[in-house]
Amino acid sequence: MQLDEIKSLYLKHKEPSLFHRYITNNHIEPLLNNFNEFLNIEIIGKSVLNAPIYGLNLGNGEKRILMWSQMHGNESTTTKALFDLFNTLSSKHEALNILDNCSLYVIPILNPDGAQAYTRVNGNEIDLNRDAQDLSQPESKVLRKAFETFKPHYCFNLHGQRTIFSAGSFNKPATVSFLAPAQDKACTVTANRKVAMEVIGAMNNALQEVIPNQVGVYDDAFNLNCVGDTFQSENVPTILFEAGHFKNDYARDITREFIYTSYLIALNYISNNTIIGDNFNSYFKIPENEKLFYDVIIRNAKIENSLLDIGFLFQEKLVDGHIEFVPKIEKIEKLDAFFGHREIDANGTSVLSFDGQKLKVDYENVFVMINNEKISLFSK
């Protein structure tokens, strides 16, 4: 598919009722009713707090792809893009033959309790992505049963990542990241990893045209407690998708389009090709993510008798049903090896708290005083 065609489809089919970062069952349930004639919807289990977990089955093709989102409840960008994808596929666009060749089984919100509370963990404060072996949580058992029943040929593990990640060692945020997880401690490049790598390579080739040098991959250190590593170890090509940061896009509504693009490229590639992993080498050209970003860096601040930098990270807080961002000081030191999504030069003047006090690590406020001027660290 051509990128201009994907762009057109996205603009036409973007789901307007889903936006910003707070996405829960309450947001998606009204939309599910719109797809009754297009896909099969079922409740496949309940969460710790008895919320329904939905499974969606669509397509009639022989190639089976299992997709799940919001395993971590506060990682919602991939869920928004799923509903953009559903809108697109239900339109039966003549250029799309994905559902003729593929069958998709999608769990749009695996962790509805975490989504409701806007937390990474579930209702028992367990990280579901470290529960693949113990299967101690009801949500983990739901996913495992879907895997065993559907018997996928591919798994898409859909997540979101923090703003701290750079694509390699350069001043470029990792807007989208991928991983073909390891399936053994030696991180052997196995046959099914090569298949996953080939699909990732196809997505990267497309994304480089729209977000050049803003695609990364994660370290593939093996952890069998992680779901992706477990499914990969059972010889099912598995791909981790991570929705990251784009300039000023703290709502993740721009990144959403790049995730949607990734979905269509991957599904179209799988639909139209017999993938055996021969074209896996391009995966290794994608830079590995590094933690080189702060949300804001104030450079050259006068701190006592020294010129230092002040690094802030935004804390995401659920307030009255929406997400607010509050800057918090993480470091006060020279940060020459780091980048800020926004940088402010204090030019050797004093930087104080909004009430005129000395700044300290863990200070939280939207405002600081620089040379007696009130400066906002975040603009909504």
TrEMBL record:
Cited CDD domains: M14-like (cd06239)
Sequence ranges assigned to domain Peptidase M14 in this UniProt record: 18-304
Entry-linked SUPFAM superfamilies: Zn-dependent exopeptidases (SSF53187)
Cofactor: Zn(2+)
Keyword Zinc part of the UniProt annotation: yes
Top-level division of the source organism's lineage: Bacteria
Name by which UniProt lists this protein: M14 family metallopeptidase
Species assigned in the record: Flaviramulus multivorans
Phylogenetic placement of the source organism: Bacteria, Pseudomonadati, Bacteroidota, Flavobacteriia, Flavobacteriales
